[in-house]
């Protein structure tokens, strides 16, 4: 059966810049090619990588025009069989699915994607909550398991523990019986995290290196860092003998983020060459593209955990797709505690 082209609206950034560059455009979305599915987006997560992509500061998205957004929940509209001659069971029309895209494009009413990407959302799991899971929780799982090799009885340090990835790490690590240390500054965040079993370190007042050396004299199994700079060397000094420092992002100067990210990644790699030191870079979009089995197994597992209440994604606010600029404003100003989600 011939599949039709359909009208679509999506957010497009034609040139890097402020939130005014987030434009809603009308277009015609072609029928999916062989081995692809077309999904009606119901909700799309908003993250700091989207802001960095909009401003031209994101290493993995260096060209315009672009449509931001890595993560979504939607409903399969149609699909075209691939080389097997059949559409996978999880890509049947009408199936509610989640996806974390290997390339940006989720700020859209419809998205075409390879048929291995959509993962069914369990019945009973709220659509908005499900849209808060893919990228942050996949990153947390990759940090803890793929790179950190963290298990029960280990201790970890999470910088920026009150952020989206930090909260996801806390929920997963707490279930696994891991001792969690985390740096944060907000008093509200500190109280919330302390209730979740985190030993919170106020980085404005306390030296995290001294706290860890005092309370974990043998060191921590893993340090999860999204800051870079001097934090990298200080993190190495508090690792247990077989511990690892994992970087999943880097802070940088406005307008110089790409260069600072490259410099940070190079620093992490070089530090890992020192005898007795282990470092790693966590880049989940690339991990998704290169390891389909890990991606599908991990996202299915996370969605199931959310459906059964084992993890609880926190939604901060929702915005209509055409209000994507307001969502970026809110995220930049830290006006909401929790994940921001666009709805169509």
UniProtKB/TrEMBL annotation:
Q: Which PANTHER family match?
A: QUINONE OXIDOREDUCTASE-LIKE PROTEIN 2, SHORT-CHAIN DEHYDROGENASE/REDUCTASE
Q: Which Gene3D superfamilies match?
A: Medium-chain alcohol dehydrogenases, catalytic domain, NAD(P)-binding Rossmann-like Domain
Identify the InterPro entries for this entry.
Answer: ADH-like_N (IPR013154), ER (IPR020843), GroES-like_sf (IPR011032), NAD(P)-bd_dom_sf (IPR036291), Zn-ADH-like_protein (IPR051397)
What Pfam families does the entry give? ADH_N, ADH_zinc_N_2
Q: Which GO terms describe its molecular function?
A: oxidoreductase activity
Question: Which ranges carry the Enoyl reductase (ER) domain?
Answer: 17-342
Q: What's the protein here called?
A: Zinc-binding dehydrogenase
